[in-house]
Amino acid sequence: MRRNPHFQFRRRTKLVNPKFQGGAAIFIIAVVIAAGALVGFLLFRDLRQALGDASASGHFGFPTPFRVVSDILIRHLLALFALVFAGGALAFLWYMHIIRRGISQLTEAFEAAEKGDLSSPSSVRGFRELVNFGAEIDEVRSHTLALIEEVREEAKAMRTSDLSQGEFEKRWEALKEKIGRIVP
Amino acid sequence: MSPWREGKSGPATGRAFWGRFLLCWFAFSGLGTLLLFLYHYLYLTPPLPGGYAAVYYALRHLAETMLPVVVLSFLAYILFLSGAAAWLCISLLHKIAGPIFGLEKVLGTYLDGASVRPFFMRHGDLVPDLVSAFNGFVSRLRKDRQRWVGVMENADRLCLQDRETCRTEMEKALAELTTLLSRYH
Fold this sequence. Notes:
The complex is a heterodimer. Chain A is mostly helical.
């Protein structure tokens, strides 16, 4: 039997970050609740009005109550569908826009680090998860810079100080070890 | 370095991602609305009684009892769509949250002083630029480190050839090392 070559690399756990993934759902649910409450209220008001009018007018040319209110029901439900679909899609679009902006700022932070800038803060804006990740990147960059500074200071000190050959060689080996600690 | 495991290109393009979201959301919101319609249809289809008074009271009664019907049906609708939205967001956004979680772990490993390997994305993950930038940063740093070590090892080799100029060669190597390190600020 042939196996799917990608299967072993698929992510099995879908709920990786509940706050990050649930945040988008909360935005959409807020839209659904708002649209549902609005259309529900209008539908109830119009249904009651139509049924009340039909009972008062004495004109009962309908076999079922549904025929009295079918137009109102269909109109309101179509409006509900349009509101929920468009509103939900817009909420998700907005959420994704903020995520994309945050991720592009994180990418820029790594690209700046590749070019040698390890001190400028990433200043990521957006959701807390992205801001925290930006802070972690900054921590990695400053940790790397501290290691490099340490090597640089040691190299400078060795060049300027008047050490004996034995002491110089000992510090030379120690310096190589320090360099090895950068991206082990 | 390609962020994709085994060098495969990403199958989940932006169009596929948005297409899947819009299709699923259209289907869920359409199904929810259809169920709402069916519920109201079933509630309102029993035939009206024959006489004038009976019809009058039946319609009045229906008008009075519509509130709990509408409230309950809309609550069920909201619950259904909330579950659908949660499922959709979890299943779509794990392709972004997953690699970020993985990268966070790699950064933690680096801060702990352990060995750092290039990060590979899984099938369908959606942040290739971020992963490429991380891999680029690590590979550049590693390349620079090899160069720094190379400068020192070259001085070591020259030392073995001539012990008299050893110290001078080492000091020259240190000067070169300082220049190379000045790239990082």
